[in-house]
Design goal:
- The complex is a heterotrimer.
- Chain A is mainly α.
- Chain A is about 75% helix and about 0% strand.
- Chain A is elongated, with a radius of gyration of 22 Å.
- The two termini of chain B are about 25 Å apart.
- By secondary structure, chain C is an all-alpha fold.
- Chain C has helices spanning about 1-30, 30-40, 45-55, 60-75, 85-120, 125-140, 145-160, 175-205, 210-215, 220-250, 255-260, 265-275, 280-305, 310; strands spanning about 80, 85.
- Chain C has a two-stranded antiparallel ribbon.
- Classes of the chains: A mainly alpha, B alpha/beta, C mainly alpha.
- Chains in contact: A-B, A-C, B-C.
- The interface of A and C includes residues 25, 132, 224, 258 and 274 of A.
């Protein structure tokens, strides 16, 4: 029965996700996100050139042409290939960061909300301090201190997102721990771990899925911003924010160089946000 | 305190005056994603000047929809699709927005359920009242203010001048509802629509509000539509009653006629599933209505009640449209067989018949509570340094015997739920002892209790929507409980779970269902089955039926009675509903502000000598029988919050029989009225014995 | 209420202490790096030690921390290695510039967000609501540097109506007012959508409350229901959110300032970080946190003032 319960819950989750069809906004979002995921997966197939190879001939006229559909950048690198490979960068860094932040944040939130008392106090004090920094300032400090690298970007995102996730999960735990089914579980002698992970956490999943989706959007922005500020992935990694930064100075001559990566990152974040909104809409239905 | 003279309503001359309100073949639908939901397919009724019509029915029967249709306020999805709502001869649906505004609040006004949320939290009471004459009569600030003060006085609010500047959250629930009533009457409307105005109020507060409504009605000659799920409140206010079922008005007529001679099977069903203060489980078992209200999308042809009706005859009852039969000039019934039904039997024996029965043989005590106290520390001050103690449960002594039911009854804040938390080990006791199965348990949190103790006490909770984990199937819940409590293997647990589902009369297929696929009553059945999983000695039930409709409530109560008699389990039943307690319990403890005011065998507690609080409670309970006489004792004021508890007797601030200063200063002595019947009061026992019965048939 | 305020003030002091310790630890816990940075990788250990002694870096870390806190409290923010002046000489000008930008953006954003949020939320699901909702989701999802690129392509390159940079130089080709348009537009565009959604959500919730029904059924006009009954309730929850935008606008506009070469606080922080100018970064971070915590307290207080349930309890 336990097995069939898991299978049942999977199929029910799928049934809920397929409800998204009824939200046009959510569908547009899903389409954008799926588009970029496919691009990231098939980057080697799609991209016409190596994103880091320089086409010296193109330097004379970097604007879009038959050879380079989206033109080339200042160093003669194919823009289309860089945009395509850029999706891979962001769609690996962001999910890794968000998933790890969720794992830590949920655990801390569950502990703080369930045990309350000093655990709660400690966890809350620490996150208050982290959250008292404006996010961008914290990013700057962390990257300045530890240097720009993919790992440090991931760590910075985790460091900043974890307390926020902790707060959400803590809030929901505080509410859910008072439910009668939790009292019933205690009365039949369930362990604390069972209560936290089997009785409480599954019932927080609706809002958490919506939040995770939004957070993927924020994280994409954060990665782009870090790239744009020169604090992101070190060159020559194809990175949308970095591309905008590198080419921004030449905006007045060759606007396409900054425009395409800017469009790319915007469409992905818009996708995540619309998808989150669609999911929120369907989760409010019942 | 006032002792209002008992008065029976005589049906007024409804036909003599033109109707204030008339609904002619009104159909109301909600347009949702699934399509059109015909919530009310076709309803007609008239309401004369100064007349009060009670609309009763279970949740989802469309009674509130009718009220909001009268107000022309059905939201963006609701619409009147057919028929006319005539107010003083004008069809409200044809009025322009402007004209409608001139009627709302001026000619027709409304009183709502949940007064707290019906008042604007950021605007002072006075301002909210003054708005009415300002918009409708163009009065100046001063005039409006004078009018508001006058109304506040009329609804008996203390210190109206200060009240004007208060915000809603600073008032008690009863005071809030008085403000809403004052607001509704500001413009002297000719029609007052009251939607469950006392639901959610404590019973003594409810009685005072009902008393006020009856008086104001008398004075202003306002016609009233009074919507309630509680037939007893309707009896107190109305001349006529309309019984609604699945969107249809199935029976309508004068209160006396309908209650004495109910002609629709549903009305009869309703009347026989409500426990009245006079009956108990041995003298008159409740009869639940089988089945469920049909979904709006699958309405049966012809009579909607037919699938649940034991008088149904297929050919007759399926005719569409179903005719309405007139029993008398004012008594109409939507049942083709209304004339053929046998006469309705009321109580087989009168109230007197439920005299002291045979004393239950006092079995062994399963649960003993001695001087139990639960104190919460309320921190105040900057770092929580200062503070004060609140005794939520204050030195109570109680015993529950094997195979019997101990009921704990009281209004909000009386400590009954805190007591449940201590018994279950969710919270710890502060002082005193709780002994279960020979072991002290009040100092051991539930996590540390021995498996034997966990098994011995299980609980049925109040809220059907939160009692089952929405992520777990019914089967999983049941098997998990069986395996944890009894240590059985997977296969045995499964067969045991099947058996338990059968015990609570649920089909075995329910094991694969999720909680949201179940109705409230079905969820409560699962909760009972879960509580039985460990074969407990003691089942603690905290308001297990208060969130359920009456017909479902009856079935659950019967189930509890049945399980108890079959399994010999002890039941501790916590409730605010005296009628249910009277029906179910062997012993009753009446609690007020953390203390037990009276304790004894049920028949003893419900008969003189009473504690003055028990007496007031009994007087306040609305009884769904116009022939029962109740002595009216109206308690003024609100229940004090536990931190403001009086020094002496907790009931002293509201007690109509207060002896004197001693009540305020000295805790009352526990007096013995008879063996096992204790009353905590300063009034000498002889005096207490002199009072008459509160409820007389 | 006063107790609450004092409590928050105490917590502010604690937070500032913790933050300063954190910032100090991040940059100065391992002072050896400083010497290497100054003297280069080929310096000898002996040279580094001598420099450390000169700079007083060989003293225990708590001593240096206390000294630093002492100096900060006395208005000595240290010496900027990037700008070659005391931090005090640069930070206030930069703050002034940022405050001007923030004030204009705030003044534009607040009325617009309330207007859009209320009009969307008063009729949930209407065309207007759906349009405003989707538009606000889209605008907040576009990163500032991307919207900078878009707006610049249109107004600077395409139409030639506005300058692409805002150096605040009065002698530049464009007047200062014109220079400010695009930075303000980018800030408002990015921030507006978020606040609009908060106001809308609050308004939607208020409109479902029974007291709104009471107001309608009293006979009030829709206009009066919105203005007299809904608005005040709907503004309670977003008030804190709106105040917190001050925080974003003063300390979070790093990107906008970078895009438009605006000589503000954010760019100072970024440039000093990129060139490892520790004193400036420390001062700027402390100030950023002070603004952030300060606006939070102001937000909480305002929330309490607006909400009589808390004011009188």
């Amino acid at each position: 029965m336990a097995m069939s319960d898991t299978a049942g819950s999977l199929s029910r989750t799928w049934a809920r996700i397929s409800l998204l069809r009824e939200s046009p906004v959510g569908m547009v979002g899903a389409a954008l996100v799926i588009f970029w995921i496919l691009v990231a997966i098939f980057a080697p197939v799609i991209s016409p050139y190596d994103p880091n190879s320089n086409d010296m001939d193109a330097l004379l006229d970097p604007t879009p042409n038959a050879m380079h559909w989206l033109g080339t950048d200042m160093q003669g690198r194919d823009m289309l290939s860089r945009v395509v490979w850029g999706s891979r960068t962001v769609l690996t860094v962001a999910p890794v960061a968000v998933i790890v932040a969720y794992a830590i944040g949920s655990l801390l939130g569950l502990l703080a909300g369930y045990y309350r008392g000093w655990v709660d106090n400690l966890v809350n004090r620490i996150s208050d301090i982290i959250l008292s920094f404006p996010a961008i300032v914290l990013y700057i400090i962390v990257i300045m201190r530890f240097g720009p690298s993919a790992l440090n970007v991931v760590l910075a995102v985790i460091f900043i997102a974890t307390p926020q996730i902790m707060r959400i999960v803590r809030g929901m735990t505080l509410e859910l721990r008072e439910r009668e089914y939790v009292a019933a579980a205690k009365m039949r002698g369930e362990s604390t771990l069972y209560i936290m992970f089997v009785e409480i956490l599954p019932n927080a999943r609706g809002p958490l899925i919506v939040d995770a989706c939004l957070r993927m959007g924020y994280t994409t922005i954060a990665i782009g911003v870090l790239g744009f500020l020169g604090l992101g992935l070190p060159p020559p990694t194809p990175d949308w924010g970095g591309s905008v930064k590198d080419n921004y100075a030449l905006m007045s001559l060759y606007p396409h160089m900054a425009l395409f990566p800017a469009l790319a990152i915007s469409s992905l974040v818009v996708g995540f946000s619309l998808l989150a909104d669609g999911m929120r809409e369907i989760s409010m239905r019942d | 305190m006032q002792v209002a003279a008992e008065q029976r309503h005589s049906p007024r001359q409804a036909a003599a005056t033109p109707p204030v309100l008339e609904l002619r073949n009104v159909s109301i639908s909600y347009f949702v994603r699934a399509g059109e939901m015909k919530v009310v397919p076709n309803i007609s009724f008239k309401l004369g000047q100064g007349e009060a019509l009670g609309l009763v029915g279970e949740s989802g029967c469309g009674k509130s929809t009718v009220a909001f249709a009268v107000m022309q306020y059905l939201g963006t999805v609701g619409r009147i699709t057919n028929g006319q709502v005539l107010f003083e001869g004008k069809d409200l649906a044809k009025l322009s927005t402007q004209e409608l505004r001139a009627i709302r609040g001026r000619k027709i006004s409304m009183v709502y359920q949940d007064p707290m949320s019906s008042l604007n939290p950021v605007i002072p009471i006075g301002r909210q009242l003054m708005e009415v004459p300002i918009i409708h009569f163009g009065q100046s600030e001063q005039e409006a203010q004078a009018r508001a003060l006058q109304m506040l006085r009329e609804v008996n609010l203390p210190d109206p001048e200060t009240m004007m500047t208060r915000y809603p959250h600073q008032l008690s629930g009863g005071q809030q509802q008085r403000v809403v009533i004052a607001m509704a009457l500001m413009a002297e409307p000719s029609l007052l629509v009251m939607d469950e105005p006392t639901t959610g109020l404590d019973v003594t507060v409810e009685a005072a509000v009902l008393d006020l409504v009856a008086r104001l009605r008398e004075k202003h000659n306002t016609a009233i539509i009074f919507i309630s799920h509680n037939l007893g409140t309707v009896v107190r206010i109305c001349d006529r009653i309309g019984v609604m079922y699945a969107g249809e008005l199935v029976e309508e007529g004068p209160i006396g006629e309908v209650f004495r001679n109910p002609r629709h099977p549903y009305t009869r069903g309703l009347l026989s599933c409500i426990p009245t203060l006079g009956a108990d489980k041995n003298s008159r078992p409740l009869t639940a209505i089988p089945g469920q209200v049909p979904s709006i999308l699958n309405r049966p042809k012809g009579c909607v009640f037919q699938p649940r009706c034991r008088f149904a005859v297929a050919e007759l009852c399926s005719q569409d449209p179903l005719p309405t039969l007139d029993m008398s000039e004012h008594h109409h019934v939507k049942c083709v067989r209304a004339n053929e039904l046998p006469s309705h039997e009321k109580l087989p024996e009168g109230l007197e018949a439920v005299a002291l029965g045979e004393a239950p043989v006092d079995a062994e005590a399963v649960l003993q509570i001695a001087h139990l106290r639960k104190t919460y520390h309320q921190a105040t001050g900057m770092f929580g340094s200062a503070g004060y103690d609140v005794h939520a449960v204050d030195k109570i002594d109680l015993t529950a015997n094997r195979g019997q039911t101990l009921a704990i009854v009281g209004e909000s804040g009386c400590g009954k739920s805190t007591l449940a938390k201590v018994l279950t080990g969710i919270e710890l006791g502060s002082e005193g002892m709780v002994t279960l199965a020979g072991q002290e348990i009040s100092q051991t949190p539930v996590e540390n209790r021995e498996a034997r103790i966990k098994r011995a006490i299980q609980m049925v909770f109040q809220n059907p929507d939160s009692t089952l984990n929405p992520s777990h199937s019914i089967g999983y819940v049941m098997e998990r409980a069986i395996r944890k409590l009894r240590g059985l293997g997977a296969r045995e647990a499964r067969s045991e779970a099947t058996g338990l589902l059968k015990t609570v009369n649920l089909p075995v297929e329910f094991a694969s269902r999720m909680p949201r696929q179940l109705s409230g009553g079905q969820k409560q059945r699962v909760a009972i089955a879960r509580a039985l999983a460990g074969e407990p000695d003691l089942i603690l039930a905290d308001e297990p039926v208060s969130a359920l409709d009456v017909s479902v409530q009856a079935a659950i109560i019967n189930l509890l009675v049945e399980i108890q008699s079959k399994r010999g389990a002890t039941l501790v039943f916590i409730s605010h509903d005296l009628s249910v307690v009277r029906y179910l319990a062997d012993y009753v403890a009446v609690m007020y502000l953390g203390q037990v005011m009276e304790f004894g065998r049920t028949e003893e507690v419900f008969a003189p000598p009473y504690h003055p609080y028990t007496e007031a409670l009994l007087s306040a309970v609305p009884i769904a029988d116009p022939d029962v006489q109740q002595r009216r004792i109206i308690l003024e004021g609100a229940i004090p919050s536990p931190q403001n508890r009086p020094q002496g007797c907790p009931f002293a601030t509201r007690c109509p029989r207060k002896v004197g200063e001693i009540c305020d200063t000295t805790p009352p002595p526990m007096q013995t009225a008879a063996a096992g019947h204790r009353i905590a009061c300063h009034i000498p026992m002889d005096e207490l014995k002199k009072v008459d019965k509160v409820v007389v048939a | 209420m006063l107790a609450f305020f004092l409590k928050r003030l105490v917590s502010l002091i604690f937070t500032m202490l913790a933050v300063s310790a954190l910032v100090f630890a991040a940059f100065e816990f391992t002072p050896g790096q400083v010497a290497t940075k100054v003297l280069g990788p080929f310096s000898t250990q002996d040279q580094r030690d001598r420099l450390m002694e000169q700079l007083g870096l060989n003293r225990p870390v708590y001593e240096r921390y206390l000294e630093w806190v002492w100096n900060v409290l006395h208005g000595d923010l240290g010496y900027s290695t990037l700008y070659k002046v005391p931090v005090n000489d640069i930070i206030w000008d930069r703050l002034g510039n940022t405050l001007m930008l923030a004030a204009i953006a705030f003044a534009v954003m607040v009325p617009l967000s309330i207007l859009f949020g209320i009009s969307a939320g008063m009729r949930e699901g209407s065309k207007l609501d759906r349009t405003i909702s989707v538009a606000s989701i889209v605008t907040t999802s576009v990163p500032e540097f991307a919207s900078g690129v878009f707006l610049a392509s249109i107004f600077v390159i395409g139409l030639g109506l506005l300058p692409g940079t805002a150096p605040l130089d009065p002698n530049a080709e464009w007047p200062i007012a014109a220079q400010l348009v695009l930075p303000v537009a980018v800030i408002v565009l990015y921030d507006l959508g978020y606040v609009v959604r908060m106001v809308r959500a609050s308004m939607v919730e208020v409109m479902t409350r029974p007291y709104i029904r009471t107001a309608v059924l009293k006979g009030l006009s829709f206009r009066d229901v919105i203005l007299k009954h809904a608005l005040r309730n709907a503004m309670i929850a977003p008030f804190t959110v709106i105040l917190l935008q001050i925080n974003y606008m003063i300390t979070g506009v790093v990107v906008v300032e970078a895009v438009f070469a605006y000589p503000g606080f954010g760019r100072m922080l970024l440039d000093s970080a990129l060139s490892q100018d520790v004193a400036t970064v420390e001062a700027a971070s402390l100030f950023a946190v002070l603004v952030s915590v300060g606006t939070q307290i102001a937000g909480d207080l305002g929330y309490m003032m607006l909400n009589p349930r808390i004011r009188f309890s």
